[in-house]
Structure formats: C-alpha cells, structure tokens
Amino acid sequence: MNWRLFSLILLLVLGYLSVVLIKKSYQEYFAPKISVTVFPFYDLTKEIVGNKFEVVLIIPPGGEPHNFEPSLNDLKKLYGTKIIFTSGTSLDAWVTKIIANLPQAKIINLNQNLVLINNDPHFWLSLKNMKKIAQTIAKEMETFDPQNKEFYQNNLNKVIKKLNELEEFAQKETLLLKNRYLVTQHNAFNYLAQELNLNIVGYLESADKELTPRELKDLIDKSRLFKIKVIFKEPGEESDLLKTVAQELSLKIYELDPIEGKSGLDYFSAYLRNIKILKEALSE
Fold first, then answer.
1. Alpha helices, DSSP H only, in 175-257?
2. Quick check: helix, strand or coil at residue 87?
3. How much is the pLDDT for 17?
C-alpha cells in the first residue's frame, strides 16, 4: 500500500475517532441535562421532557433520600444540569450541598401550590398533587426551551389524561370497600389514604425510629378495636416486628408501594397495582 495514502487514511480515522470521543464527552458531561432528586418526580419528568434532553435521577431507585451524601461520581453525572426538580422538603434538602458544583442549575421545588399533610414529603401519592406537579414541570421546560413549547404541552396533556384515568379507576375500585382502616409498616401513605377516604390506624416504624413498647401496645389495642385484618409492608421489606405483630393479631401481610422505585415499576403501574391490592386486602 502507498504509505502516503495509508498515512492519510490513518489521519482521517484518528480525526473521526477524536470527534466521536469529544462529542461523547460533551454529551456525557456538558450537554444540557434535567436532573431530579427522587424517583416519582423523575418518572413524571421523563414523560414530559421526552427525548428533548437527558433526564438524570440523582438518587438510585429505592435509595434512601433522607441521609443521601452525593459522591464524586454522583456529581460528575450531573455536569451540564440546567434544572433540578426537588420535593422542596427535608426529604432532599441535601440538594443545597451539590448546587455549588452546578452554578448554572436552577432549583425548582415541586411542593409549591400543593395541599400538604403536616409537611409529609410523600405528596406524590396524591394524584391531585401530581397533576399540579406535572404542570409545574411542563411550565419550567417551556420557559427553558420555548421552541418546543407545543411538544411539552402535548406530553403534559397525555400525563394529565393518564392521571385522570388512574383517579377515576381508584375511586371506582375503592368505593365499596368493606373495611377502611389499615395499618402500615411505615408512615408513608397519608396522601393515598386521604384521597381514597381510608383511615390509617397506625404504623410500625417512623422514618428514624421504631415504636416504643407503649406505642406498640397502643397500636395493637387500636388494631383490635378497629378489627384490622391485614397489614401492609413495602417492597423488599418485612421486619421481624412486622412478622411478630402479624402473627399476634392473625393479620394477612400485603405489599403496598410508596412508589420510590424499589418495585421496579413506573409511577403509573405502581399506583395502579396499589389500588388493586387495596381492593383485594380491604374487601375481606
């Protein structure tokens, strides 16, 4: 082969590879990204943003948000972030620690204009709240990327339609439940209970502590008083305390999803599954 031709081909190949690597590096670290702190809002954001920008979930699905400490790798994957959607509560207050490394990022708190229950951060379990959150996300995307306003509006309309269908299904399926009292493993389902006209008698564990012996006795007494027949655990969790209480009161154990990504289901599928489980568990 002619060495001059070989050298030319080699230079062209190396040049092409350099362009590919530079493009990949840019897309990975500097191309505009939209970041979201926790799974349910990430799932909703992806529905609205579509393929226009990369949407990054800061905490892995099912990760513990309360004590999250971002690592160097966590920060690297956020390079290029222009908007960070957060709950705006203590759940992801750590976001202030990473904003110094992302000077161009705008923080949007999604708890604005919502009906909250005693500052409970699990407000994504309210479909009414999720409709408002979807509108907030779409509005921010339209402001950030006005040339694609119609695209975001169309996606928002699809999301609202899906949420309306879920709400209609949930109300219909739970309208005639025989039992409206329940006990859960964690205190995470107040919004779900409120919208479905259910009553949470109590829970076995709070976010940071187990019940005291006195609190546990009170819960057992209430469970007997309200004739509780079932207890709800979360995906991947079934503590010794839960098993003991279930055995003591002859309770069936069902799984209720707080929709934090542990189950592997998307938001809509997880909510739908919750409704089906509630109907089955509380119809006995």
1. 190-195, 213-225, 240-249
2. coil
3. 47
Alpha-carbon gap, residue 168 to 153, rounded angstroms: 22
Listed residue (194, 251, 193) closest to 222, CA to CA? 251
Query: Residue 133 — φ and ψ, nearest 5°?
Result: -65, -45
Q: Is 198 left (phi over 0), alpha (psi -120 to 50) or beta?
A: beta
The residues pairing with 147 across neighbouring beta strands, listed in sequence order, are none
Specify whether 90 is located in the same domain as 42. Answer: yes
Query: Which distant-in-sequence residues (6+ apart) come within 8 Å of 257 by Cβ?
Result: 234, 235, 263, 265, 270, 273, 274
Q: Which residue has better confidence, 67 or 200?
A: 200
Contact criterion met (CB below 8 Å) for 191 and 125? yes
Examine the fold and report which residue of 171, 187, 220 is the final residue of a domain before the chain moves on: 171
Range of the domain at 70: 31-171
Q: Which of 131, 150, 171 is the last residue of a domain?
A: 171
Identify the top-confidence range among 19-28, 149-158, 168-177: 149-158
Query: Strands 230-233 and 252-255, how do they pair?
Result: parallel
- Cβ atoms within 10 A of the Cβ of 86, count? 22
Token reading at 123: 């407000």
Using alpha carbons, list the distances in angstroms from residue 86 to 60, 74, 98, 108, 245. Answer: 14, 16, 12, 6, 36
- Give 230's contacts (C-beta < 8 A, 6+ positions apart): 182, 183, 251, 252, 253, 254, 281, 282, 284
In percent, how much of the chain has pLDDT > 90? 60
Same domain, 157 and 212: no
Where residue 28 falls among pLDDT bands split at 50, 70, 90?
Answer: very low
Q: What is the mean pLDDT of residues 187-208?
A: 88
